[in-house]
Predict the structure.
Amino acid sequence: MKILFLVPPESISIESSVPKALEGGKGYYPKLGLMYVAAWYERATGNTPVFIDCPPEGITEHELLEQVEKVQPDMVAMSIMTFNLLDALHTSESLKRRHPNIKICLGGPHVNMYPKETLDQSNIDYVVFGEGEKIFTELITSLEEDISDPQSLQVIKGLGWKKDGISKINQTQTELLDLDELPFPARHLVDVSKYKHIIGEGRQFFSIQATRGCPAACTFCDIRQTKFRYRSPESVVDEIEQLVNMGVDDLFFVDDTITINKKNLIDTCNLIIERGIKINYKISARVDTINEEVLQALKKSGCYRIHFGIESASPRHLKYLQKGQTPEKVERACKMTRKAGIGFFAYMMIGIPHETREEMLATVDFAKNLKPDYAQFSICTPYPKTELYQQMRDEGIVTEDYWQDFAERPRVDFKIQFWNKNFTEQELRKLQDECHARFYSSASYIMKQITKVRSWPDFTAKARMGTKILTSRMGI
């Protein structure tokens, strides 16, 4: 079978809780999850698949159909989040219209939450839920060995399939993969130069993953209290060397909290130093998982920024979100990070249930006092299957399971709902714009950014983002 791994064109994605001013212009991140699946398939079968990533390549629907005509794939595999479900379904319909015999398989975070609901959609033939690397290859191998007997598919855990138009969902695969057994993502199938991010430190950006899972209990997160696993320092640094040889000099570790296992992270940093690898990189971390030893190792090995999930200045709202941290811990961690010579990005949240306008603006002031390189103020949103969503349903704040309804009946007019009883969506969006304007328009912040500009393209990119933030506040 000829396999096409596809990231569909972006045209009807659901609007997120991030402000419109910051949604565009940030660049494109590689789809590592799908690249891992492609790499496992290639290693296991010896066959080289095709990988088309439409957004960074600027590929339109018409151009995609032309490329598919040339490739003539038997199976098209896409990894989807809830935000791009509509894009995936629209693309599936377009492909099936041209090629009725083509098979469509969907995997990814949305499918993990709603496997049957996704499979029930027309034009979808298979779904993979759970860690898809091994499951997808088992699906293809089974189809190739005995395509006349679909019953053979029922033994593959983590697979959904159809028989006579009826959806069949197999048992969940509960055995987790050994991360050191994973092949490196199939970056050789894409044009690495197409991936960029405007607030990086190097010429060529790409992403990498060293861990999976997070033991923290944040109620708004979909991987809340999941098993934390990590790769060996040798495996991670071998991959970094491969990326450097491909021309990459700016990495983002997409791990939710890479700092959970401090010793393993420090060993990884030390190995980067021992091998003399010159790389710029950034990570994400909780404020209660760093110390001076970790920060020193990160700085020496090339880390230039840490993304902290801070959320709020209010102890009661941090408790409501089950963050497990306090404003004092946040201040201490940010101070240590600055002292170590590492920048940081502050992820903040407004519109938390029962939060007042005064508390939201206090969170902005708190963020300004922390002196981060950047801050983002998202509107608190109960995403599907999260503890926050269930908690808000239990409190009667959310009166209907609208995410379930969307999973069953995806529609273009669907809008994310924010749930603070004291504010309308329009009021929250306006407050969000005001928060960003208050943070980014301060004289001290502007002067700090001017002194850090590395080049004219860097200046113009940041200026465009700043202009978007300010004009959004003025309603332009």
Notes: The two ends are 51 Å apart (CA to CA). The first strand starts at residue 3 and ends at 7.
